[in-house]
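Re: Re: ligand-bound prediction request (bumping)

Still looking for help on this. To restate: I need the protein modeled with 2-acetamido-2-deoxy-beta-D-glucopyranose bound, output as structure tokens. Inputs repeated here so nobody has to scroll up.
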Amino acid sequence: MLPADAPLSHLGPPALLLLQLLLPPTTAFFPNIWSLLAAPGSITHQDLTEEAALNVTLQLFLEQPPPGRPPLRLEDFLGRTLLADDLFAAYFGPGFPSRRFRAALGEVSRANAAQDFLPTSRNDPDLHFDAERLGQGRTRLVGALRETVVAAALDHTLARQRLGAALHALQDFYSHSNWVELGMQQPHPHLLWPRQELRSLAQVDDPTCSDCEELSCPGNLLGVTLLTSGYFGTHPSKPPGKCSHGGHFDQSSSQPPRGGINKDSTSPGFSPHHMLHLQAAKLALLASIQAFSLLRNRLGDRGFSRLLDITPASSLSFVLDTTGSMGEEINAAKIQARHIVEQRRGSPMEPSHYVLVPFHDPGNCVLAGIVQGSPGQG
Ligand SMILES: *[C@@H]1O[C@H](CO)[C@@H](O)[C@H](O)[C@H]1NC(C)=O
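Reply:
Sorry for the wait, this slipped through. Here it is.
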């Protein structure tokens, strides 16, 4: 039951029922737009994932100017919500559809949100940086990113799923740990890079939280300088003196020390540290941008563009008049063709097929060859 003064108590039973269906029993940043009914103004996993992807896609577009079109200008995009349609129109031309890109991004976002619903992932503290399992959490996160890179060459659906899972954990770190409360203004420098040690972790016998009987618990962390995270539910059970995740769904938070430290939402009913939600979301966004950039780096621009379906699956055709009398023009055309190919190579505009169609005077046109990928690379 909700306490009488919970922010949701003005909602009638049907709305509450709806919320219980929509909100997973473990919560992180809320998974998607539907769960915002519970805490309007909260930033969801889906928001973070999409904004980060658009940010890095814009970065790619700025660094790889579109062949034959005016380069994009950063000023045109600063200070407003990035939209896939705007980015694609600026890069590929007005009206160019961003549908496939949005669908790919949807797959990543849905896989991210699913981490809170699927029986295999929702109660595993390692996948949410819960229960002080920070080292284990990082190992799983780095593993999921590595699997994304491997799968990107073979199976985009699998790669997008692994990426969604990795981003979910990464974003949870900022709302489930006390990184923000430690006064940190930047993402954790070692979460994505496993060779660095995660330092200053609270040990099992370091008490971290005091009892808090209110919904809001702004001062319940015990002057901690060590990194910790909240325990959720009963797996594993909360040792004495440790922080809970907190909120309506967390059984552990009714055992002393009561309360909790999560920053998943703006709602005190779900998030005892709701006042730090926006700070946590800001760091989660920066970290997500780092993760997409890392992926772009590992896959190359071409691989990254394929993974997110940025590249239009297109063919580039060259039709050459090979009639004997055209010798000089053929050479000029070859140079032109080479130039066109070079401009696109490795960029989001690189076509997936090249088609060469020679024809000569007396008539018939022969399809000479279709080359998959860059000519000259294989
Ligand atoms: C992309 O993210 C960076 C932060 O990493 C920010 O400085 C930049 O303004 C963002 N770009 C846009 C167009 O919002």
